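Sample entry (64 residues):
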Amino acid sequence: MRYQNGIVAVATVLLGVLMLTGTLFTGHFPQATRAEAIGFDALAHDLFAVAPAAEQGSNNKKAL
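Predicted structure, serialized as C-alpha cells:
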C-alpha cells in the first residue's frame, strides 16, 4: 500500500508540473488558441443554429 501511495503521489506531482507548464506557456500560441476558439464557435453555430423541422416556419414565433 505504501508503494501505491508513493506512485500516486509522484504521478500527481508530475501531472501538476505538466499542467503548470502548460498554463505558463499558453501565451506563446495565441494564433492557435484563437483558431481553435473560432473553429469551435463556428461548429457550435452550425450545430445549434439548425432548428428541428417542427420548430421551423413563419407561424411559429415563440418568445425565448
